[in-house]
Each structure stands twice: as structure tokens, then as C-alpha cells.
Input
Amino acid sequence: MDAESIEHKLKACGLVEITDSHFIIDMMYARRENIADLPVYKQIGLGNRAFAHPQVIEKMLSLIPELEMLNLKLRICDAYRPPLAHILLMQQVPLPGLFAENYQLSNHCHGTAVDVCLTDLNGNNLDFPTEIDAYTPEIAQALHQGNPTPLRENLIRARHDYQDASPTALTNRKLLKELMISHGFEPIPHEWWHYNLQNFEDYPVITI
Output
């Protein structure tokens, strides 16, 4: 399916593209530099485009005044995830707990979640306890050599209750969490970057 057909299908399903300049669209699964070492979104035709449920868009747009006041932007590293992409990611990284065990359980496949971090106005990420997805090139290489230990260890640092990081990283994590919660998003305990709408089961899986 080409990009135009995908866009038409997603909009017909009620999803909206994130395009405002306060958000940097940098979909990690559209490039190879991710924990799966595979540009899945590019391969299936979605590319570096972020779509989400209208309620997600509404809440994200409500963040803009505070982002402007803080001289910050929000980097969007994942949003709607096609079920096919979820399946491919699980096949590439069969590590229990990294991805939802099936796409029906993934907020992303319902269009109700975003993976984000704060940046300065030049697009430089603020310091956080890990990269989004706990990714480093070395961890990805170890994983695909059959060694999941470095990723498992780094995922401990991705938890909201992890405290053995720099004061700056902890402050930025707290700021992001407070911003997202105050605008109606819900965190999950084991990924500081992931925020979703409540009761994602009330929203249908979007299949393209």
C-alpha cells in the first residue's frame, strides 16, 4: 500500500496526523536506529508520519502554551502503530514484555498512545534516564546476537521509580510526566516515554 492510500485509509478511520511545528516527528520505527534494527514503518509504507486518535491530538495541542512558556518542543517517536508493524516488531525482537503480547493489547494499535520526550527549541533532546525504548546501538547489536541482558538492564532505568540517574535526568522525567498527566494522558510504570488515553479498549484497533 502506498503512502497516499495509507493516509486516506487512516483518515477514513478517524485518525488525525500530527503536524504542528511544536512537535518534532521522529518515528523511531521509520528508521533503522531502533531496538528492532528494522525500519518497519518505512517498509510498510507509513514512513515518518505520526497519526493518532482525535482525542490524543486535542490533548497534545493543549500542551502548546506550556511548551512555549518553557521554550521546549516535544519529540514524537511513536504514535499510531499498524498491527502489521506490531507483528513484525515482535518477530524481530521476541523479548517478552518489550512489546504488548499481541496488537489488540497495544495502545499504539488503537491510535491512543504516543512515545515522547522533551527537546530544546533546536530539537536537542533533554537528558533522560535512557533513550526512548531504552535504545543504544550497542544494546541493539547485543540483542540481535542473542544477548538480551543489556536491554533488560537498561529497561530497569526506564521505570518511573528508577532513581539512580542524574538529577537533571530525573527532573526532566518528572517535568514530562507532570505535563502529560496534567493534559489528560496516562503514564505506564515501566516506560518513562509512553503516554496514552485511559481505557484504550474503548477505542477500536485501526487496521490498514
Remarks:
- The chain has eight helices and seven strands.
- The radius of gyration is 16 Å.
- The beta strands are 16-17, 23-25, 51-52, 72-78, 113-120, 186-188, 191-196.
